[in-house]
Specification:
Blueprint (H helix, E strand, L loop, with lengths): L3 H9 L11 H17 L3 E5 L6 E6 L7 E7 L19 E3 L2 E3 L3 H21 L6 E7 L9 H7 L9 E4 L11 E6 L1 E10 L5 E2 H4 L6 H10 L22 H9 L4 H8 L12 H7 L2 E9 L9 E2 L2 E10 L5 H14 L6 E10 L2 E2 L14 H18 L4 E5 L4 H10 L3 E4 L14 E3 H21 L1
Parallel strand pairs: 3-6, 3-7, 7-17, 8-16
Antiparallel strand pairs: 1-2, 2-6, 4-5, 5-18, 8-15, 8-17, 9-13, 9-14, 10-12, 11-13
């Protein structure tokens, strides 16, 4: 059996940044690493080419009556920028104070390794285990998984006998309190450009005569929220579902501390929608956020111009039964409608993904027709996490988006058991990303117990 930490280090050395073509070699290396690892584990490996980055499938076949678990993960990572803020090379993993530092350590190569190592150990100890396992590791999650939905649609029949999806690409609040995520927000992304004069103008000679595109853009952006942080786009909240009492009770068990949250974020005040705590807002409500804004001179000192154009990038996080295309179209139309005369505006739609919700068994709103193997998976996950982490998990929605999870449901009819193995201090998408190695090791043990129990339940 391989050493999971050393194997993880090996994987982290590949700079598998999917959004930047300069990192093609790193993407290829990461894929080849997974091919070799799964082959060494005795699994059948298939590399599925896509228009961008290949999908790695690894299968353990078996009797058609055995349970069948699909383990999902992704081998691509976010860019490491800004490089100057890293305390070590982002692609040369370093262990310090019980943490492994590298880009991708927590998102998603570390949590993914928990399930890979668990399968390797389980099969080594139980060669005749009555369980079918399929790993599906994609290389485009960080850019919205554009190839995975068409892949699932084209291979729908080959996944017809899968019972559930198991993954770890979600958050837990502390290393003692693990969360099983039961809801993810959807997403719709837009790029906005405002154009004014055909070139940058001298602000003394022309300022006051033309509509400044930066001013126009700021006015449009400011109009998209009211003073209570409510989005002012007509129909934006259509499809938002009610929050169940058990969900609020579960969230209360988290005992989240607003003061500690502000200190961690480095802000003096929080700004949730009126009537909601920040912890409710990030789980139960949709958002419209400005991810970046620019226009005109950005260098040192001053350059007195009226810029020719300005831009912003917007992402909307969506919940419940909201339709990402419909909401994205409404935001796009609102921006176009609010553009002042004197400038022209274009809005390009980016990637999108639907929100996802699953109700675990034993709740007032649990589906009566929930498949037995899914019920057992949730129940054994509760038991395994309680035994390995010292307390049972909380079942909470999360604010992040993994669009493919909703696609697993809509295309394949599969629900997901999502075990959070990264923590707030792991700094996902930021400099000095890391993985708590104690969480990794306990995650491996919990995953082993879950897989063994699913196999034994039949």
């Amino acid at each position: 059996m391989f050493d999971p930490v050393e194997k993880l280090k090996e994987h982290l050395r590949f700079p598998s940044v999917s959004t930047d073509s300069k990192f093609k070699e790193g993407m290829d290396g990461s894929r080849r690493f997974l091919e070799g690892l799964f082959t060494d584990m005795g699994l059948g490996v298939e590399v599925v080419n896509t228009p961008m980055h290949p999908i790695v499938l690894a299968r353990r076949e078996g009797n058609s009556e055995w349970p069948h678990v699909l383990v999902y993960g992704h081998y691509d990572v976010q860019p490491a920028d800004p490089l100057g803020e890293w305390q070590s090379d982002p692609f040369d993993p370093v262990v310090k104070d019980g943490r492994l530092f590298a880009r991708g350590a927590a998102d998603n190569k570390g949590p993914q390794m928990a399930h890979i190592a668990a399968v390797a150990q389980v099969l080594e100890e139980n060669p005749e285990l009555p369980l079918r396992i399929t790993f599906l590791i994609e290389g485009e999650e960080e850019i919205g998984s554009p190839s995975l939905k068409p892949f699932l649609e084209s291979r729908k029949e080959s996944f017809a006998d899968v019972d559930l999806v198991l993954l770890s690409d979600t958050l837990s609040p502390t290393e003692e309190q693990i969360v099983v995520t039961v809801g993810l927000r959807g997403i719709a992304v837009l790029d906005v450009e405002v154009k004014g004069p055909n070139v940058d103008l001298h602000s003394g000679l022309h300022g006051g005569a033309v509509y400044n595109p930066v001013q126009a853009l700021c006015e449009i952006c400011a109009s998209l929220h009211d003073g209570n942080n409510r989005v002012t786009v007509d129909g934006f909240y259509e499809g938002v579902t009610d929050v169940e009492d058990w969900e609020r009770e579960e969230l209360a068990k988290l005992e989240a501390d607003e003061k500690a949250y502000k200190e961690m974020l480095g802000v003096d005040e929080l700004h949730p929608l009126e009537g909601y705590t920040p912890f409710e807002a990030t789980r139960y409500l949709p958002t419209l956020e400005f991810n970046g804004i620019g226009g005109g001179y950005q260098g040192e000192g001053s350059k007195t111009i009226v810029p020719a154009k300005a831009m912003t990038k917007i992402s909307c996080r969506l919940v419940g039964n909201q339709d990402p295309k419909a909401i994205g179209d409404r935001v796009r139309q609102a921006i176009l409608d609010r553009a002042p005369s004197g400038v022209s505006i274009s809005v390009k739609m980016g990637h999108e993904g639907a929100p996802y919700l699953v109700t675990p068994p034993g709740r007032p709103n649990s589906p009566a027709d929930m498949p037995d193997r899914l019920v057992h998976a949730f129940e054994t996950t509760t038991k395994a996490i309680g035994e390995t982490f010292g307390r049972p998990p909380l079942f909470l929605r999360e604010g992040g988006s993994i669009p493919i999870i909703a696609d697993f449901k809509s295309i394949l009819g599969l629900d997901s058991v999502m075990i959070g193995l990264f923590l707030p201090e792991d700094k996902l998408h930021a400099p000095n990303e890391s993985m708590n190695l104690d969480v990794l090791n306990r995650g491996i043990e919990a995953s082993k117990r879950i897989l063994l129990s699913i196999a034994q339940h039949g």
